[in-house]
Amino acid sequence: MATKTRQKPQPAAAPRAELDRDTLVGFYRTMLLARRLDDKEIQLKGQNKIFFQISGAGHEAVQVAAAAHARPGYDWFYFYYRDRAFTLALGMTALDHLLSAVGAAADPNSGGRQMPSHWGHKDLNIVSTSSPTGTQFLQAVGTAEAAMRARKVGEPLVETAGAKPDEVVFVTTGDGTTSEGEFWESLNSACNLKVPVVYIVEDNEFAISVPVEVNTAGGSISKLVAGFPDLLVEECDGTDVWDSYAAMGRAVEHARSGRGPALVHAHVIRPYSHSLSDDERFYKTEVMRSEEAKRDPIAKLARALVDGGMATQDDLQRIDAEVNAEVQRATDEALASPQPDVSTAMDFLFSPDVDPTAEQFDTEDDPRFTGNDTTMVDLINATLRDEMRRDPRIVVFGEDVADCSREDVLPDVKGKGGVFKVTAGLQREFGGTRVFNSPLAEANIVGRAVGMAVRGLKPVVEIQFFDYIWPAMMQIRGELATMRYRSNNAFSSPVVIRTTYGGYLKGGAIYHSQTGESLFAHCPGLRVVLPSNAVDAAGLLRTAIRCEDPVLFLEHKHLYRQVYNKGKYPGPNFMIPFGKAKTVREGSDVTIITWGALVQRSLVAAKQAQEQHGVSVEVIDMRTVSPLDMEAVAASVKKTSRLIVAHEDSLSWGIGAEVVARVADELFPWLDAPVKRVASMDTWVAYAPQVEREILPEPEDVLKAIVDVAGY
Hints:
The longest helix is centred in the N-terminal third of the chain and has 26 residues, at 21-46. The strands form five sheets. A seven-stranded mixed β-sheet has the order 10-9-11-12-14-13-19, sandwiched between helices. It starts with 20 loop residues before the first helix and ends with a helix. It is α/β, with parallel strands linked by helices. 54% of the residues are buried. It contains 25 helices and 21 strands. Helix 1 runs parallel beside helix 4 (94-102) and helix 21 crosses helix 25 (699-710).
């Protein structure tokens, strides 16, 4: 039986774009350079001189065509790992690529921190590429949106964001990645906002071994997206430079003219395996591979140049020799280039210039109190107002955070301002350009914020409930927390994520009572803050906004309007540095370190211990868990020789376990009793009040631990 080959959908024939000889020869040289770099890296991997390789072979034609319509350093670029020819056409060099392949310290993409083909270049506006598939789409929308909002606000925000009047954001992808939900979320927002994002889908028909008809209903992404409003959809033969150039020209013109986003569906080939960890012969027949080879874009362009009288075989051989020599020179230089020094392992995890643990952020001893005692909600709102007045870069968004999205009815309604009213009135004062609602999509919120932050804006975003933060986890852990580190300080994303968390509210149940700070404290590059009272919330939030690191700012719902944690507004320059614990009760017999809602419960238990058992208990509010103030813990343990860690999160595998481990390592000689933990049961929070109370730690649980430790 004869082997059948799948017929690829082909766009209708269009008039050939007018391209002169020099342009076409330039295309050919860049495409050939990209292919030779792939080949050289494959050779180096076989010699164990590099450690990974993934090629862009077969995608070169549409990439050089796209780059011909782009303005490096003016437009912005979010690439994926096959965009080798695109980066070369924008101005990156063979040496740039090979420095990345060998993991050299001089690698301009990441300083040797990322795999090869994870592009990044500050001067060209190529934002650091990461491995997770699909995370780039929402960031591209945020980057385009940043310029749009900056132009509406005016100077100095236009200058800060480098907003150009007709800039375009290019975002590329393979066909497989269009299956990710964030692709669809990004299209929704790009069309809704009508931002100038040009999507390029480089469809080589396979996501590793999974064919396009399995990934995409009907096998054509351009057909699926055709219904999005204001989205121009172009389909082209991505192995043909003329067809690709024409399609890209129409798409870029549509976006530059302010008519909305565009998507180019380019049919390309993948003549090499997915990567050197893959063997395409396991899932492609020889007939299929042979058919692909006939469409090789470099061979097609070479034939066209010769047949059209624009180059001779000698010309092509000369170009080939020049390219080979360039690749060899770059290879020799890259292999001789020093590796990063081991001392740099922790560099650029956080900002090297702005340290939120430093003395400059400590104005706690000089509050300028005004007004009456009020709630945590009110002081967070007041802090946001003052910071937004001070810094025009700040934008506030999330679900329900605006007073009213339909601004024409705003004078006639009270306004929402968040489900807990934390952002009430901000839109009325600062306008809908700086305070606005997002779709109900957590990855959308954080991804767009990352894209804004890389341009210099300061997003302060809200995730309505901690329990629903998980769709954004990839954006938080894989993107937000890694941006500065993986780009070797070329890019950063200092976003503040505010979210409510915790139990002790009747009826919260499984999906409105979670506490899981340990999961985020475990993410390198992310600050995690948990204020226990109104005044601390104001000081810590101001530090979060003014620092240059990504911050998860956890606001306990139960503490929002408690009488015992009210306070006066401490003034527009009141700050508390991260990593500075506060002793909220002095004691001599037992130390409790705690945070969040357990601070008050520990204070209640400490008072009972003193009155009922004569035990003097010191209570320390950690306030931040990343960083953690171990100096404060050590000082207190050396005084009391007994320690309890009390937190609301589940007992096992939490911050408490980390503290106990550190104490065992560093403070064992000073301990006179085992360290105790008080925490929630290792289960979910139940709806029934009596079961919820049993699951969550209460003052009597803390008191029992005090008595046990004191009596050891």
